[in-house]
Amino acid sequence: MQNNDQYNSFSLLKFVWKWRKWLLIIGLATAILSLLCSYLVTPRFKSTAVIYATRTNSTAKILLNKENYNERLEMKAYGTEEETEQLMQLLNALEIKDSLIVHYNLADHYDVSTKSKGWQTKLYKMLTNNLTIKRTDYGAISISVSDEDPQMACDMADYVLRLIDTVKNRAEHERAAAAFAALQRQVDSVNKEIARIDDSIQMCMEHGVFEVEEQTNRVMQQYAIAVAQGNQAAIARLENEQKKLAEWGPRLDAWHDLQYNFREYQSLCKAKMMNAQLDMEGCIPVKFVVDRPIPADKKYFPKRSVIMIVSTFCVLAIALIVLLMIDKIEDKPATKPEEADK
Fold first, then answer.
1. pTM over 0.70
2. pLDDT for 199-232, tens place per residue?
3. Domain 175-281 belongs to what architecture?
4. Residue 257, Cβ neighbours under 10 Å: how many?
5. Is 282 left (phi over 0), alpha (psi -120 to 50) or beta?
6. Taking the CB of residue 238, how many other CB atoms lie within 10 A of it?
7. Closest Cα to residue 168, out of 57, 78, 62, 281?
8. What is the spatial distance between Cα 125 and Cα 103, in angstroms, rounded to a whole number?
9. Among 121, 161, 129, which Cα is nearest to 143's?
């Protein structure tokens, strides 16, 4: 050693051996005390459910898809990272926490006084600490609930599983209901327009114009015959027919085109409206349940052995540092008077 005040590994072992009795007493006392204290901590139990998100839960898209095969519209398709993150966000929604608080009266269960200041914040914080939502290594979602009562933890985890269907379906049903109402208004407008077009077509028919092309061909043939025969009365009558066709024929063709287009649009709106109604009324699960929660038969906290080992190690480390400091102070040589005078 270059300096006697410095400790190498060998001197440290000598130092530990020197104070072995005290370190042993401190270690044993700490281990016993920490073990006794761990029995004062209320044990907690954890129940866990594991689920996968689905690709889509649109009933209309799944059941009424007429297009080519699409993996995204497959009822058995598992969700991607995007759907998993969306489902996790819904699981952390306040609506789920509020439902848990009300359904299980968690204010009383957690012994939180509703008359104290900031009790809601405290209650939400306690629930957040006891409810864990996280992704697994395989892309699933783990829902864990811890509580002093193993059955309570299991029931709350199972309740969350049922709530997620309710929350997501409710949100999507509201959207589908809004789409259904908008499409209903559109269909009503189209129906009024079609009725107006039908009235215009009826007016053309009242003027003797039914099928423009067919009537025109027939009138022209008869007109040619009348001219060839020199039948002036027939010519005059057919010329009058030609004038009516010239006046009302283009209108009738235009009204027929509009009628066709509006009826096509009407059919599309009605089909979309029926899809929206199916989404609005349908309720299919929004997740694949891999593991359902069960009441735990073994506590997960506190781990008495871990508490004892960690606390004993920490106390021994502190004790060793304190003893090193004491030993260093005692071994420091006193300053000579002549050195002080210099």
1. no
2. 888 888 877 777 777 777 777 888 787 777 777 7
3. Orthogonal Bundle (1.10)
4. 11
5. beta
6. 21
7. 57
8. 17
9. 161
Please state, in angstroms and rounded to a whole number, the distance separating the CA atoms of residues 155 and 268: 46
Q: Give the span between the Cα atoms of 151 and 111, in whole angstroms.
A: 18
Q: Which two three-digit tokens encode residue 226?
A: 């009348």
The two three-digit tokens of residue 276, written as one number: 């929206």
Q: Which amino acid is at 336?
A: K
Taking alpha carbons only, the member of 9, 6, 14, 160 closest to residue 88 is 160
Q: For residue range 98-137, list pLDDT tens digits in order.
A: 999 999 999 999 888 888 888 999 999 999 999 999 998 8
Predicted confidence at residue 41, as pLDDT, reads: 66
Distance CA 47, CA 155 (A): 9
Distance CA 252, CA 238 (A): 19
Tokens of 212: 């423009």
The Cα-based distances of 109 to 25, 113, 123, 149, 152 in angstroms read: 42, 10, 10, 10, 10
Q: 54 has which bridge partners?
A: 78
Adjacent-strand bridge partners of 291: 50
Q: Is the dihedral of CA 190, 268, 79, 295 positive or negative?
A: positive
Helix (H, G, I), strand (E, B) or coil at 211: coil
71: DSSP letter:
G
Residue 156 to residue 48: CA distance in whole angstroms? 10
Cα separation, 90 vs 136, whole angstroms: 17
Task: Tell me which amino acid residue 117 is.
Answer: K
3-state secondary structure of 281: helix
Residue 151 has what pLDDT? 92
Residues paired with 47 in a beta bridge: 145
Domain with CATH 1.10.287 in the chain: 175-281
* Bridge partners, residue 49, by sequence: 143
